């Protein structure tokens, strides 16, 4: 067999393997498809120290970025005050990317991407390392907003950095938090703030700009989602003025729709040719948009449906099994609607144990995991009717979104990273409901 045939076979094998690699990893804070669901995940539904806690490790500094996992590596970012910095001004920080061993929690390596004193304050509940990293299994990307974007190999070697994007001026000094998104060889970087806003498409191998599209938008904390429309990929981004979609190849705006509320945070989800985008601060809006529209599609047939009450604020919605789950504002009240029609299965139902919500819901193994800032995670059935399966706690504040991968669930708390897995036989759902 000649070398050209071998090369073709290798490419075919890689193409066949790629979907399986995505399904069995969690390379982005909203999972392999950006919807918050794990294709093949079967993590525990119950844990309380020490039950089902495989390991926990302390994370220095602070940050609310979510963990991402690829094969045997777990990545988180954090901002660590320099030793001896006890002044009254903002502290000088080390902005770090940490890599842990998935099986043991051992720290494999850490890299300090930047050492800097933030130019602007942040909200009391938002640290200076809130953007989640992302990885494709070859490189891992750590985004620290105004401090820059950094690309590392899986062994921690710096490949490139972009520290020329400027400094963000965030509304009310609430702090930065949007995360980048990988799509093929493109890395999408959101840059919405009170100054000149934009979205960047960078070559993920070199960091060079492919395109930059200016955005007439104030501060937004959402993360872009790439969706497919008959083979043409669109980049959908939330915004206070408009939800917008851009052509992935060129950055050209394709369509937009108004109706959003102030300072949007929630990121889009996608199902069966329709993208869903919402916000829930000082108002309520959740819209379902067909991807075939062009220009301003507000009040047209390209808007499949709209919900104008009880929509999410900080936490992004979850799309699983044809259903959309979302919290009311920052509360523990949960709604579940049919993705195709927007008709509710239930709306704003109170979930005992849940209080203020920052973490987004995730789904795996026929269950939905709902996590509150008080450290409580309530597990419910992924079903049309609300059915609580279990209530758990890691006994510390949790703002980051959990990551279900395989038979494990990774939770990043205020002080620790937890790996939760099956150590005892799981009770069936009927017993857990009692």
Low-confidence stretches: 6-20, 426-434
Helix and strand composition category: mainly beta
What integer is the average pLDDT? 91
Number of helices: 2
Rg, Å, rounded: 21 Å
Note the quaternary state here.
single chain
- Sheet with the most strands? 5 strands, mixed
Q: How does the overall form come out from the CA principal axes?
A: globular
Q: Report how far apart the termini are.
A: 63 Å
> What percentage of the residues does DSSP assign to strands (E)?
35-45%
**Helix content estimate:** under 10%
Total beta strands? 33
Strand order of the largest sheet: 14-15-16-17-21
Structural summary, described in words:
Strand 29 (376-381) and strand 30 form a beta hairpin. It is globular, with a radius of gyration of 21 Å. The model is unreliable at 6-20 and 426-434 (pLDDT under 50). It contains 2 helices and 33 strands. With 434 residues, the chain is mainly beta. It has a 5-stranded mixed β-sheet with strand order 14-15-16-17-21, with no helix packed on it. A 4-stranded antiparallel β-sheet has the order 1-33-32-31, with no helix packed on it.
